[in-house]
Design brief:
122 residues, alpha/beta, 36% helix
Length: 122
């Protein structure tokens, strides 16, 4: 579970990500923030941080994973798999400090062609 400081950090990063996707022309933007008008819908178990439609029409499902969350390997795997199996493009944003560890996890899962890992600055 995230402490208050990590929760605020994640909210700040999520807002910046949503703003970036909006500037890049993504549509149907849904963000899992209380302050955002449309929150992600249609997910039975875990609600992702962000959902948007790319210019090519494919749905992007994204999550911010802080370094602390990499220890939750089983729950992270099931969430990522549920998104990938739906045909979504999955994007994981992680801090530079744990980028290698996150990329190693995705490779270990055998999903490197379905899930993209990118470092975030904050």
């Amino acid at each position: 579970m995230l402490d208050e400081e990590d929760r605020r950090r994640k909210e700040r990063l999520l807002q910046a990500w949503a703003d970036d996707l909006d500037r890049k022309g993504f549509s149907n933007l849904q963000v899992n923030l209380d302050s955002y008008p449309v929150r992600p819908q249609g997910f039975a178990e875990h609600i992702p941080d962000i959902v948007a439609t790319r210019k090519d029409g494919r749905r992007l499902v994204g999550e911010i994973w802080l370094c602390e969350s990499l220890d939750e390997n089983d729950s992270m795997f099931s969430r990522a798999m549920s998104y990938a199996y739906r045909g979504d493009v999955v994007m994981l944003l992680v801090p530079f400090d744990c980028l290698d560890a996150a990329e190693d996890l995705v490779r270990e899962w055998g999903l490197s062609s379905e899930i993209f890992v990118q470092a975030i600055l904050d």
